[in-house]
């Protein structure tokens, strides 16, 4: 700790070290600024109350100025010395009285909006607003118990996947509540909740199913009953193994047909390249470009991409008699096709953009299909010889 006059100029000069440190003002005792290793600086006051040293943060340098922090420190320290108040106790009471709704709002604003991708933001917001807020309401954060979470989770047994996701979101909120001083450390009530079993669904289209789908895609494209861009999107999903959002929001600037590559600046696993086969390139060449629209899959609004892919897919899969096939199953089919032609799991993982081999391992059983076919051929030949 050191002392000097805290002004905009002096605070500007303070830099981060290996550990955080505090510089106190030499004019106003108890007024200081904490400098974090990151270089962020936070104004605070320090005082003693009932034999204990207490510290209360005022705010971050930048959003508030040194002069504003000094005035607030003067007010708070004056209250302490006059015996009229204890800012730390008031802060603790406020934290302890926070409701679950208020925690959800802070979670979405300070964590989700800053750190999560848009698709994750949507899912977290949905869990908070549709499931957590109606269940907990204005219950105090500190009063939430494991029994409460078990009741929430058990009441969603008819939607087990959503139940598990919701408890996962709640667990993250509770961890942050500990960081923010709203709950005691190591008190997460979600820790002992056993999730419902989940079976990863892996659906692949057979050769006959692919033929039916191909026939319907040609039909709806020719009669104009579906957008040519929607049809192109479904073909590209099947021929590239991309995720829906990667094709739906794809821009021409990211497509390099000469290098047979898509360079995505961002994806579920970060920036990645998608390598294109000849069939995928043929699809790209037939997609009409629209002046002023940067997207490959053009939507109805000027300059926008096609936002609704589910409704055309439901109509197409009904015509093809593939009612149980989801759009994501086209990605699975791309993976299964690679294994059937003899590509290994490592190569399939690279093509799909998986960061962990465990993610690709769900397709492992398909690698045995050629072996099974050979076994059938040999056994049939021997059985025929046996008569």
TrEMBL record:
Domain of life: Bacteria
Tyr recombinase domain mapped to chain residues: 200-376
Any Pfam family matching the protein: Arm-DNA-bind_3
UniProt xrefs under Gene3D superfamilies: 1.10.150.130, Integrase, DNA-binding domain (3.30.160.390), Intergrase catalytic core (1.10.443.10)
Keywords noted in UniProt: DNA integration, DNA recombination, DNA-binding, Methyltransferase, Transferase
GO molecular function, one term: methyltransferase activity
Gene Ontology BP, a term: methylation
Protein family per UniProt: Belongs to the 'phage' integrase family.
Name of protein: Adenine-specific methyltransferase
UniProt organism field: Pelagibacterium halotolerans (strain DSM 22347 / JCM 15775 / CGMCC 1.7692 / B2)
């Amino acid at each position: 700790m050191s002392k000097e006059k805290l002004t905009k100029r002096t605070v500007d000069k303070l830099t981060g070290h290996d550990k955080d440190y505090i510089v106190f003002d030499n004019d106003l005792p108890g007024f200081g600024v904490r400098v974090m290793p990151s270089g962020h600086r936070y104004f605070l006051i320090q005082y003693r109350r009932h034999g204990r040293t207490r510290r209360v943060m005022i705010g971050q340098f930048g959003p508030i100025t040194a002069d504003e922090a000094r005035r607030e420190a003067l007010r708070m320290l004056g209250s302490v010395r006059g015996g009229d108040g204890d800012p730390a106790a008031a802060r603790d009471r406020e934290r302890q009285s926070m409701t679950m709704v208020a925690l959800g709002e802070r979670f979405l604003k300070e964590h989700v909006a800053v750190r999560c991708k848009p698709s994750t933001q949507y899912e977290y917001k949905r869990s908070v607003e549709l499931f957590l807020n109606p269940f907990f309401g204005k219950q105090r954060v500190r009063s939430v118990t494991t029994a409460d979470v078990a009741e929430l989770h058990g009441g969603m047994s008819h939607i087990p996947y959503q139940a598990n996701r919701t408890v996962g979101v709640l667990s993250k909120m509770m961890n942050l509540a500990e960081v923010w001083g709203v709950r005691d450390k190591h008190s997460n009530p979600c820790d002992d909740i056993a999730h419902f079993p989940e079976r990863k669904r892996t659906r692949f289209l057979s050769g006959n199913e692919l033929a039916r789908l191909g026939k319907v895609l040609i039909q709806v494209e020719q009669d104009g009953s579906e957008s040519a861009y929607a049809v192109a999107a479904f073909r590209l999903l099947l021929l590239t193994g991309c995720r829906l959002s990667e094709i739906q929001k794809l821009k021409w600037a990211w497509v390099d047909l000469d290098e047979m590559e898509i360079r995505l600046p961002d994806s579920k696993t970060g920036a990645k390249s998608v390598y294109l086969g000849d069939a995928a390139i043929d699809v790209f060449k037939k997609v009409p470009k629209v002046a002023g629209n940067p997207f490959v899959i053009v939507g109805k609004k000027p300059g926008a991409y096609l936002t609704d892919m589910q409704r055309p897919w439901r109509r197409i899969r009904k015509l093809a008699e593939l009612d149980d096939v989801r759009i994501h199953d086209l990605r699975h089919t791309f993976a299964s096709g690679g294994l059937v032609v003899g590509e290994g799991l490592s190569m399939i993982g690279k093509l799909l953009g998986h960061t962990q081999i465990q993610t690709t391992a769900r397709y492992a059983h398909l690698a045995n299909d050629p072996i099974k076919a050979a076994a059938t051929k040999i056994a049939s030949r021997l059985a025929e010889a046996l008569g």
